[in-house]
Amino acid sequence: MKNETKCLHSGYTPVNAGPRVMPIYQSTTYRYTSTDEVGAVFNDPTRSHIYTRFTNPTVDVVEKKIADLEGGVAAMCTSSGQMASMMSILNLCHAGDSFISTSTIYGGTVNLFAVTLKKLGVECIFVDPDATEEEISAKIKPNTKAVFAETLSNPAVVVLDIEKFVKIAHKHKIPLILDNTFPTPILCRPFEWGADVVIHSTSKYMDGHALQVGGVIVDSGKFDFTNGNFPEFTEPDESYHGTIYTRDYAFAPYIIKARMQLMRDFGAYPAGHSGFLLNLGLETLALRMKRYCENAMTMAEYFVSTGMFEEVRYPGLKGDKYYDLAQKYLPNGCSGVISLTVKGGKQAAAKFMDGLKMASNEVHVADIRTCVLHPATATHRQLTDEQLIACGINPGLVRFSVGLENVDDIINDVDNSLKNLR
Ligand SMILES: *Cc1c(COP(=O)(O)O)cnc(C)c1O
Asked: What does the pLDDT look like over 19-65, one tens digit per residue?
């Protein structure tokens, strides 16, 4: 099936006379008829559901759908994108280990990696995504267990040279984890380029309607965890009656380990109702992404035409620094986020945003409605000026997240606001 079809059909096939739409299983637990049965499920938790702290039938359907959309073998939903990022790392690194991350990532992730994981003894080594293979490789140490990056970064819309990063990670026998939130599998499928793990904040385009926060981790099933670098995958897990993940779950050792260790212990799992709402968003994902791309391209060209911006960054624009990479990795469109630098700095940026009537000033992105945010004083507020620059953010930068309104109305709204600045 093609992705447009998978959005509608993957993950759930009704039984004869069963409900057409996947039902909401709002239950903490699952009843068994014998202790033998319960024992068997504990032996092999992939058989059926045990407890909603780490699996749920409704969420399971969503996991299967997203895994299928990405072309992976298995997925695990999490209660937020932040939790997907954190678990994707903690599944590979423990105290004393390190990992590489590009610096142009979401501000919340920067804080999680640089501050919170550091407290847990895991070191994040930040690199410039545009650095050469040699420069990045030089930062990898014997204890480095993963490479992390965003395919299309939030908010600087840097397009990642995925193949360069795959090469670096695989040369050092460590997996590449890509945050694919902005492109979604509709615009880019990182596994096809060799990435090993994909994560998403489903709060963004996947949910699409600003209804619920969530995340997901997807396993390509292709990384060789028996290469000697990952004893936790190849030696018996004493916390799970001696399971050896690469032996017992060779089809998806990464995601099964994440569920059996991290999700079992942390329990950051979505409820059935959240899975139901996320599925509803996913059903129209392909349709919506096409329209986001069209509207954003029109808006990017319009922003340039006004002459009111120091910089209009959208990788779909000819002449953009990342145009060539976008042609390669995002041939069907560059998603819906435009990074704008208003002439006149911080004050002008605020005036521009305050003058918008339809577009909302809110801490969100990738919503069905147009929204704007000033990263330097909001999502990236905790960062130092130095970190801001490394993230590709300057004080006048406005993140413009194009919605699905008629594009003429978005232009009108912007045009009215720009009148105050002229
Ligand atoms: C929002 C976002 C996150 C964090 O996700 P939450 O669902 O808000 O926890 C991670 N990565 C990217 C690219 C994001 O845009």
From this structure: 999 999 999 999 999 999 999 988 888 889 999 999 999 999 999 99
Among 230, 263, 280, which residue terminates a domain?
A: 280
Kindly write down the DSSP assignment for every residue of 131-160, as one continuous string. Answer: S-HHHHHTT--TTEEEEEEESB-TTT-PBP
Indicate the residue among 226, 250, 280 that finishes a domain: 280
Structural domain boundaries enclosing 271: 3-280
Residues 145 and 240 in one domain: yes
Same domain, 150 and 229: yes
pLDDT digits (tens, 9 = 90+) for 121-153: 999 999 999 999 999 999 999 999 999 999 999
Q: Are residues 55 and 147 located together in one domain of the fold? A: yes
Q: Are residues 276 and 293 in the same domain?
A: no
Whether 367 is in the pocket of ligand 1, judged by its Cβ within 6 Å, is no
The Cα 203–Cα 419 span in angstroms is 33
Tell me how many domains the chain contains: 2
- Distance of alpha carbon 370 from alpha carbon 340, whole angstroms: 14
Q: Both 353 and 218 in a single domain?
A: no
- Residues 235 and 57 sit within 8 Å (Cβ to Cβ): no
Ligand 1 centre and the CA of 198: distance in Å?
A: 13
- Per residue in 177-223, pLDDT (tens digit) is 999 999 999 999 999 999 999 999 999 999 999 999 999 999 999 99
pTM of the model: 0.97
Whether 201 lines ligand 1, by a CB cut-off of 6 Å, is yes
Instruction: Kindly state if the Cβ of 88 falls inside 6 Å of ligand 1.
Output: no
Q: How many angstroms separate the CA atoms of 204 and 200, rounded?
A: 9
Q: What is the pLDDT of residue 422?
A: 83
